[in-house]
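Memo to structure team: turn this sequence into C-alpha cells by end of day. - J.P.
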Amino acid sequence: MTDSYAATQERMPELERRIIDDPGSFRVLTGERPTGSLHLGHHFGTIRERVRLQALGVETFIILADYQVITDRDTAANVADHVRGAVLDYLAAGLDPERTTIFTHSAVPALNQLLLPFLSLVSEAELHRNPTVKAEHAASGRALSGLLLTYPVHQAADILFCKGNLVPVGKDNLPHVEITRTIARRFNERYGEVFPEPEAMVTETPEIPGLDGRKMSKSYGNAIALSMSEDETADAVRRTVTDSDRVITYDPEGRPGVSGLLSTAALCTGSTPEAVAERLGDAGSGALKAFTTDAVNAFLSGHRARRAELAADPGLVDRVLREGNVRANAIAEATLAEVRDHMGMGYANG
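Reply from structure team:
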C-alpha cells in the first residue's frame, strides 16, 4: 500500500494538469455514509475539494450511501435526518445541484444490481484482504456480515455505474480504487470494453484531528458538526479534556486535547498549530478554548447563515434529491443495459 500511495502522489501534478486542461473528460464519484452530521473534518477533507472540482467544470456525482449504513450496525435510525442534513451542508458549502448530482443508494436499483456480476469477478480472499473490511470488522466486535465483506464491491458499483474515472480519496481508501480498477479490467477482459479504470486522486489534505486529538469522527464524539450553533460549538470545545500546564504547546502524543484544539484553531484561521501555541504562550487552556471557539465560529459563520437560509425552504432538499435520483437512475439503467448486452443477456433489456 505504501508503494501505491507514493506512486499515486507522484502522479498527482500531472493528473492535476490534465484536469485543468480538459475538465470535461473527467467524471468524479465521491460521497459518504450518512451515519451522522457532517463536521469540520468533512469540510476540510472532502467538501472543499468537491467544490473546487465543480468550479473547474468536472462532472461530479455525490452518493449518500444510505444502504451502506447497515454494513456495521443494526439499525438505519436517523438516516433520513442525516441525509437531509448532508444535502443542506453540501449546498451551503457551494455545491450546485445543477452541476453536481446528489443522490442516494437506495433510490437507484440499477446501481445496486451491478453488484451481482461484479461479485463474480473477485475472490473471497481479495475481499478479506481489504483494509477497510478488516478494520471495520475488528471495530464492530461482531461476526463479519455479507454486506461488510462485499463493501468494496459495492463501492466499485458506486464508481462504475456512472463510468466514473476519477475518485478523490484519502490514503486509507486507495485499496477501494484498486479493487474497482481490478473489477473494471476483469469485466472488460471477460465481456468486452464497458468500463474505464478509474484513477485515484489523492490531495494534500491534512489529517483532521478531533477535539481530543484522535481523528475527527462522528463515532468518537470529538467532532464539530457544520450544523452546530455557536453555543453548541462553545460547549463542545469547553468539554475537551486538557491539562493544568499553562504553557500552551503542540504535542499530539503528550497533550492530545491541547493539540487537538490547536489543530482545529489553526485550520480555521489558516495558521499552524505551532503558531497558535506561540501566540497563546502561557495563557492556559481557558484562553486556548476561547480562542478555538472564536476561530471555529468565525470560520463557520457564513456556512451557518447560508444553511439557515436554505433550510427555510422546506421543499428544497426533497427537490435536490428527487432530481439527483432521477439523473442517477437514468445513467445507472443505461449502464446496466450495456452490461447485460455485453454479457449476452440483452433479452432482459426490453
